[in-house]
């Protein structure tokens, strides 16, 4: 094995190509030419003595040897970065970038403002905020921390449960004045419901009754949306009724633009969690952001301990 090609720069290039699957995308991300990316990969493969990547005109994929090498490179690069961070943090205030992914509506309504407060306290920390409702691969996308709503599948990520997001049934006074108010849960089947098309089972509304039992009500509507902010606008415009997180509509409830429907019956709460890439958890700037979010997210409307 020729060790002359085994530099950290070449490992970093290889790792990002393995994660992105596209040479030109990695070149733009790293601020280097595509020819430099190709040279780094060729030199690394020559150094280790085996093909690491399989290249086609459309995509780059890992070979079996490349897959194992990627895992080892990832651990090496994270250890190197962590060692540098810990050495620097011992002498000065934490600095650098943290990449945070957050469900979109919560990010727009509240988390962006919280990040402003965080950066006022830690002006040397850059936060890259990625807003998406897709369950992305944190490692592949280079994300350090993700704030998620809903149940989580088994994950290799470090999990920090923040509590539950409580929801209400809401409707606009204009809609309720025309169509009347439902008097019992079974009535909901006769009303227009704003349906979240990206939420599994949204055609069945599960409500918790005052005695603790659960009721399942089939619902439907002519409007289906895949974004919480679109649902918020639909409720306010009188397009129907439906379940909404309190943090999404609390201001509209306060001003009377929305009203609570069947207040004794509540949609089931939704878990709120932080996912943290384990190898990034010990880095000071990541730890600071996690601790900040743990404290501040619990203060948002409707977020309560489990």
From TrEMBL:
Source species, domain of life: Bacteria
Keyword annotations of the record: DNA-binding, Transcription, Transcription regulation
InterPro entries from the UniProt entry: LysR-type_TF_proteobact-type, LysR_HTH_N, LysR_subst-bd, WH-like_DNA-bd_sf, WH_DNA-bd_sf
SUPFAM superfamilies: Periplasmic binding protein-like II, Winged helix' DNA-binding domain
CDD domains: PBP2_CrgA_like
Keyword hit for Ribosomal protein: no
Residues covered by the HTH lysR-type domain: 6-63
Pfam family of the protein (one): HTH_1
Entry annotated with the keyword Transcription: yes
UniProt similarity note: Belongs to the LysR transcriptional regulatory family.
Name used for this protein in its record: LysR family transcriptional regulator
Upper taxonomic lineage: Bacteria, Pseudomonadati, Pseudomonadota, Alphaproteobacteria, Hyphomicrobiales
């Amino acid at each position: 094995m020729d060790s002359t090609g085994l530099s950290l720069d070449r490992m970093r290039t290889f790792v990002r190509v393995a994660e992105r699957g596209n040479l030109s995308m990695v070149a733009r991300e790293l601020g280097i030419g595509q020819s430099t990316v190709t040279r780094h990969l060729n030199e690394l493969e020559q150094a280790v003595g085996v093909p690491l990547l399989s290249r086609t005109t459309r995509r780059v994929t890992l070979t079996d040897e490349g897959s194992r090498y990627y895992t080892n490179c990832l651990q090496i690069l994270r250890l190197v970065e962590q060692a540098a961070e810990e050495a620097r943090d011992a002498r000065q205030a934490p600095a650098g970038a943290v990449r945070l992914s957050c469900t979109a509506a919560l990010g727009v309504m509240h988390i962006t403002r919280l990040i402003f407060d965080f950066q006022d306290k830690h002006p040397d920390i850059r936060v890259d905020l990625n807003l998406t409702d897709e369950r992305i691969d944190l490692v592949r996308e280079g994300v350090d921390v993700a704030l998620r709503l809903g149940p989580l599948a088994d994950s290799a990520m470090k999990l920090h449960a923040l509590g539950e997001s409580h929801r209400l049934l809401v409707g606009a006074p204009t809609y309720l004045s025309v169509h009347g108010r439902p008097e019992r849960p079974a009535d909901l089947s006769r009303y227009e419901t704003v349906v979240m098309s990206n939420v599994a089972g949204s055609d069945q509304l599960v409500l918790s009754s005052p005695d603790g039992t659960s009721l399942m009500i089939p619902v439907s509507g002519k409007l289906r949306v895949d974004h919480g902010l679109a649902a918020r606008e639909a409720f306010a415009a009188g397009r129907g009724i439906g379940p909404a997180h309190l943090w999404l509509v609390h201001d509209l409830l306060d001003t009377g633009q929305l009203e609570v429907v069947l207040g004794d019956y509540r949609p089931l709460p939704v878990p709120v969690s932080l996912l943290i890439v384990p190898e990034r958890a010990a880095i000071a700037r990541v730890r600071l952001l996690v601790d900040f979010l743990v404290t501040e997210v619990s203060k948002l409307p409707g977020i309560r301990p489990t």
